[in-house]
């Protein structure tokens, strides 16, 4: 049996070759055998294959003796929310997020929505799939669970509704996944939503739902300009990530959104810890310190960030890849809480999104993440460290290689899944320096790659 759909943090593969109902049923049984879960939340995204895979997964969970609480069509964060809010033993979301329409997958959590990844159970579930199963003496039952009302109430608890004022916002649900939540929020907010690609459609008529790809941004940007909206928001397929466009239709790099949200949260909470990744840091460190908080660096990746947040009791965590994590959301990532907080900030400050962001881009210009295919990433990274490390103020290996000088810094790290290295460069208020160092590093990587 092909088990190549098991990855480091989740399951993802082509349907039906790598993931299909037969395997999904076995995964359900293996999940119960490994975790011992007795109450499991199951939800699924808008993909055409998702209902059948969720149905088979549910059958496997029940055959192994677990009760299944079916929350139906939803986003990944609703499985996280329902698992923690209702005190379940675990949750499984059937989704392949921003992957192509002929793919599907699963994201798994345990109690309190703690992630299940390759280092704490996912590999055990994979290995257990291959072993024979006996049905439990008493099969589990299945019941529908309406998680939406409590979830919507929780989302609205992050903002002061009395301070919100009428505002026009473009919302691009990609192929409709996030649209269901926007509709549920609409009656309780004073905002006018301009809805783009809003209707759920698992045939993905609007392409792969991944706003990080430049070719997927125009629909949101154009609608912002056409409707003179205050901002635009676009989500990926399972809407655990959201992406921002200012009132001019400009895409905002996720790095600057982390700083904005950290500042907003710390002001509301009167201090606390903020977790951030090592790729780009100076803007976040500056804003967190100014707002009376403490910044804590963590290795990139949701399993690492969530664990570090728990360890530090951090109120917020952010990655430049548009994952935002919240202590009161079971330390999980949400694609809905961030835009509510940004909208609140615009209403309370009377400022435009561009004016909030421009000063930060000017203070800490950044290259954005640049990917290069390299034959031998470890050798190239070691050579770069040898060349730049000797004169640096700081060299760190929290995640890949971070090298810091007085007025610029960079992070170079390997992909977990492909022969690619990812470069991020930033400077202190000097765009020309940042661009020159970026070009220099790319040329050096090319030379070393031969």
Automatic annotation (TrEMBL):
PROSITE patterns in the cross-refs: PGM_PMM
Catalytic activity from the UniProt record: alpha-D-mannose 1-phosphate = D-mannose 6-phosphate
Organism domain of life: Bacteria
UniProt record, GO biological process: carbohydrate metabolic process
Pfam entry (one): PGM_PMM_II
Keywords: Isomerase, Magnesium, Metal-binding, Phosphoprotein
Cofactor(s) required for function per UniProt: Mg(2+)
Domain Alpha-D-phosphohexomutase C-terminal: residue ranges: 369-437
MF terms (GO), sorted A to Z: magnesium ion binding; phosphomannomutase activity
Enzyme Commission code: 5.4.2.8
InterPro entries: A-D-PHexomutase_a/b/a-I (IPR005844), A-D-PHexomutase_a/b/a-I/II/III (IPR016055), A-D-PHexomutase_a/b/a-II (IPR005845), A-D-PHexomutase_a/b/a-III (IPR005846), A-D-PHexomutase_C (IPR005843), A-D-PHexomutase_C_sf (IPR036900), A-D-PHexomutase_CS (IPR016066), Alpha-D-phosphohexomutase_SF (IPR005841)
Ranges where the Alpha-D-phosphohexomutase alpha/beta/alpha domain occurs: 6-129, 150-249, 254-364
Pathway: Nucleotide-sugar biosynthesis; GDP-alpha-D-mannose biosynthesis; alpha-D-mannose 1-phosphate from D-fructose 6-phosphate: step 2/2
Family: Belongs to the phosphohexose mutase family.
Protein name: phosphomannomutase
Protein source organism: Marinobacter zhejiangensis
Lineage: Bacteria, Pseudomonadati, Pseudomonadota, Gammaproteobacteria, Pseudomonadales
